[in-house]
Amino acid sequence: MRRHFSIFEFAVRGGFRLRTRMSFPLRSPRDTVGGIMVFGRILDKIRLHARGELPTGWHLGIIAGKRTFDDRVCRLLGVDFDALSRRVLAGGTDDEVLEWCFKNGRRPDDEHIELFNGFMMKRGWRDTASGGLEQQKQEAGLGHRDDIVTFFDLMDAEEGRAP
Fold first, then answer.
1. Phi, psi (5° rounding) for residue 36?
2. How many CA atoms lie within 13 A of 81 on its CB side?
């Protein structure tokens, strides 16, 4: 089970200081690379993990039997997560890594990207993941926050960004 920390707990438990609330080391899942949400966040997690800097409690990769955001992005692009990790660690820009995904997996068209982003942005809101979202909100101490209605909202709130 993922342990959630508020941005302020993380600063103390992680053993370093954050200069501002916006200095959390992961991008928002809403940020895009090549128009695809979550992809840049995955690249951040891979790079941080390789340096031993991925915050405790933040998940990286595929969990057997679960549909993680990392898994969903890899399925959209038709690439294996471990192969993606190796490519990221070989170096290059985010756009170069995405182009590698297109060449070694598949290049979704604009409509597929729009559908994917729409699904991902709303995950947890009135769907089969709603119970999990509520549980994770409680674990994060954010159960009282009515403005957190999706997993994107939760990630942003936990990491000090406005949902």
1. -100, 120
2. 16
